Amino acid sequence: MVDHRRWLDLLEEEDLAFLKRFVLASGSLKELAEAYGISYPTVRLRLDRLIAKIQVFDSQQAMSEFERSVRALHADGRIDQATLKQILKVYREDKEKHHDAKTRTGSAAAGV
């Protein structure tokens, strides 16, 4: 399932605001930290998470909207790696189960 929306369209308003401030600060993380009133390492972490999120959204790898959303949550630091893996494992197992059930139903209906 390929999502033809642009990565920019998939970002949340908070991400877009951060990106705008980053550009207006000419990419200066120090200036951005001062504008937000937070430390440089915190701004760096926020930028790294935004980069990871954009990479997920911009990926040419075919993935469902669900998988893209879960991977974005991980990139945003809202879920950890172990949780991401467990969610995707259960999702893929469930998807495979439904695919197998459809295949059996289709074969039976065709008289195979």
How does the SSE layout of this entry go?
Elements (H helix, E strand, L loop, with lengths): L6 H4 L2 H12 L4 H8 L3 H19 L6 H11 L5 H29 L3
Helix pairs in contact: 3-4, 4-5, 5-6
Describe the protein.
By secondary structure, the chain is mainly α. It has a domain at 7-79. Helix content is 74%, strand content 0%. The protein has six helices and no strands. It has helices at residues 7-10, 13-24, 29-36, 40-58, 65-75, 81-109. α3 packs across α4 (40-58), α4 (40-58) runs antiparallel to α5 and α5 runs antiparallel to α6. The longest helix is centred in the last third of the chain and has 29 residues, at 81-109. It is elongated and about 60 Å long.
Summarize the structure.
74% of the residues lie in helices and 0% in strands. With 112 residues, the protein is an all-alpha fold.
What keywords describe this structure?
74% helix; 0% strand; elongated; 6 helices; single chain; 112 residues; mainly alpha
What is the rounded distance between the termini? 28 Å
Shape: elongated
Fraction of residues in helix = over 70%
Which stretches are poorly predicted, pLDDT < 50 over at least 5 residues? none
Computed structural class:
mainly alpha
Largest sheet features: none
Radius of gyration: 20 Å
Percent of residues in beta strands? under 5%
Element-by-element helix/strand order? HHHHHH
The helix count comes to: 6
Average per-residue pLDDT, rounded, comes to: 87
The number of E-state strands comes to 0
